[in-house]
Amino acid sequence: MRPLDPVTSKQRVAYGLAFFVLFVALWSWATLGGHVSKTFLANPLTMVQEGFDLLTKQGFVYDIGMTIWRVVGGFALAAIIAVPLGVLMGAYKPIEAFLEPFVSFARYLPASAFIPLLILWAGIGELQKLLVIFIGSVFQVILMVAVTVGATRRDLVEAAYTLGAGDRGIIRRVLLPSSAPEIAEILRLVLGWAWTYVIVAELIGSSSGIGHMITDSQALLNTGQIIFGIIVIGLIGLLSDFLFKAFNAWLFPWRLA
Amino acid sequence: MTILKIEQVSRTFPARHGNAPTRALEPTDLIIGNNDFVTILGPSGCGKSTLLRIVAGLDRPTSGRVTLDGRAVTGPGADRGMVFQSYTLFPWLTVRENIAFGLRERGVSEAERNEIADGFIRQVGLSGFENHWPKQLSGGMQQRTAIARALANDPKILLLDEPFGALDNQTRALMQEMLLSIWERDQKTVLFVTHDIEEAIFLGSRVIVMSARPGRIKAEINVDLPHPRSYKIKTTPEFVQLKERLVEEIRTEALKVAEHA
Ligand SMILES: Nc1ncnc2c1ncn2[C@@H]1O[C@H](COP(=O)(O)OP(=O)(O)OP(=O)(O)O)[C@@H](O)[C@H]1O
Ligand SMILES: [Mg+2]
């Protein structure tokens, strides 16, 4: 090992898998070896069994679908509003001066603390769940996009001006393309956070979704199901992250070249 | 006909963090006529870039004014093409798209854009690299693309700020010949900033020597060497003589900088 030395892609996969193998091994040792009580932590085999049961008999696939739709819906709503606003803030300093203090403040409002209020306003339907995710993501995205756009290389902007670009041209042909990869990264990051909001929203006042299943299982002391639910969330996150990354690489080939 | 007039242009950067204001440029006068190739020579920090940026409209003078064909310069525009000291190709555009940037801004059709861009790609010797990203190019190739990008816009005047400053000597010499051959063929009005004495003489029809900070024009020397010039001219007695004269001028300035430092 030397600082910043690259690894081959085969090695990368091997190392990544090794961690999971080690993790499961430790977990098996702790549970199957009788070091931890069954009530607190199910062993891997029980977990797989419970998971299979959930998927085939208890309609867990529907729960997963509901959760994904809520995350994607709330997140898309946030992105549609936040990205243009962030770009405007980054490009036009007066707009930034106008909105930045409020957005910075709103960013620290915990989305989960809004749940009781949102239940009052919007009931316990889908709208309330979408709103939780919306509130949790929108301010973060606005602020991060504004910073990214504002940090566009000045020399590129100046070069574009000397080539005859107007204000519209600067935004459409310099600020946007130069920040686009960063904006895609921001969306990928915040989508990850949106996953935590959705589960919290589903823990309270919900009749479907992964979070709802987890609360139900808690009442039954079924730690196998809880762990299976958590692992499913992790796997979906991993998958969406992977897709997002691949999509970004495809969208911005000039970065990798 | 193109006439660039720089009249009593000065620039003082305002004080910041308790530092005294920086007088970067003393009031300066300079007239650049049609198809002139003027090189500005001066030590580092003497305000060469500042002057060029004011002409480009990227910076405002503290006093004085710049006019191009009688019209006052108030901001950047396509009539003054600029090649920067640093690499400023758009990383998300290919070589061809970079060169066509200004044309596209003007609404030229794609077919015509590509035709013009490919013409300049040939001129600067980048055939075969049309679809490369800037990241895949060497520094010299990037600056050639930047020159082609500025030329493709057909500006009235081309402003170059030490475009070859970061290149090795051999590449630099080749680039000078390339630029000069373009100028000899197409007759452009050029304002070229450098701190390399040989470069200033080889390229210029007129060399403007600037003094150390605060910058002002200290001497103006006509270069009456015949065109077309090849690199061989650098060893002729006339060239060497001019060089000695400029070395002397620059040396006194460099010494001043050293004393103040
Ligand atoms: N934006 C700025 N704010 C404050 N001072 C500045 C600014 N830009 C330039 N200066 C100062 O003005 C002086 C001239 O700078 P300029 O960049 O024009 O020099 P230069 O002749 O191009 O030097 P070099 O050959 O090193 O590029 C320098 O002393 C610099 O510190
Ligand atoms: Mg400079």
Automatic annotation (TrEMBL), chain A:
Q: Give the UniProt record's GO annotations in the biological process aspect.
A: alkanesulfonate transmembrane transport
Q: List the GO cellular component terms.
A: plasma membrane
Describe its membrane topology: Multi-pass membrane protein
Among the Pfam families in the record, one is BPD_transp_1
Chain ranges passing through the membrane: 12-30, 68-92, 104-124, 130-151, 186-205, 225-244
UniProt key word Isomerase = no
Where does the record place the ABC transmembrane type-1 domain? 64-244
For this UniProt entry, what is the primary localization, expressed as one broad class? membrane
Keywords, comma-separated and alphabetical: Cell membrane, Membrane, Transmembrane, Transmembrane helix, Transport
Q: Keyword Glycoprotein: yes or no?
A: no
* InterPro entries linked: MetI-like, MetI-like_sf
> What's the superkingdom here?
Bacteria
PANTHER family per the UniProt record, alphabetical: ABC TRANSPORTER PERMEASE PROTEIN MJ0413-RELATED, ALKANE SULFONATE ABC TRANSPORTER-RELATED, MEMBRANE SUBUNIT
Function, please? Probably part of an ABC transporter complex. Probably responsible for the translocation of the substrate across the membrane.
Which protein family is it in?
A: Belongs to the binding-protein-dependent transport system permease family.
Q: What is this protein called?
A: ABC transporter permease
**Protein's organism:** Bradyrhizobium nanningense
The organism's taxonomic lineage, starting at the top? Bacteria, Pseudomonadati, Pseudomonadota, Alphaproteobacteria, Hyphomicrobiales
From TrEMBL, chain B:
One MF annotation (Gene Ontology) recorded for this entry: ATP binding
Q: Which InterPro entries match?
A: AAA+_ATPase, ABC_transporter-like_ATP-bd, ABC_transporter_ATP-bind, P-loop_NTPase
Residue stretches in coiled coil: none
UniProt keywords (A-Z) are: ATP-binding, Nucleotide-binding, Transport
Could you tell me which Gene3D superfamilies the record lists for this protein? P-loop containing nucleotide triphosphate hydrolases
Taxonomically, which superkingdom?
Bacteria
- Where does the ABC transporter domain start and stop, copy by copy? 4-237
Function of the molecule: Involved in beta-(1-->2)glucan export. Transmembrane domains (TMD) form a pore in the inner membrane and the ATP-binding domain (NBD) is responsible for energy generation.
Instruction: Tell me which PANTHER family the record gives.
Output: ALIPHATIC SULFONATES IMPORT ATP-BINDING PROTEIN SSUB, TAURINE IMPORT ATP-BINDING PROTEIN-RELATED
Instruction: Please state which protein family the record places this protein in.
Output: Belongs to the ABC transporter superfamily.
What is the protein name for this chain?
A: Sulfonate ABC transporter ATP-binding protein
Q: Which organism is it from?
A: Bradyrhizobium nanningense
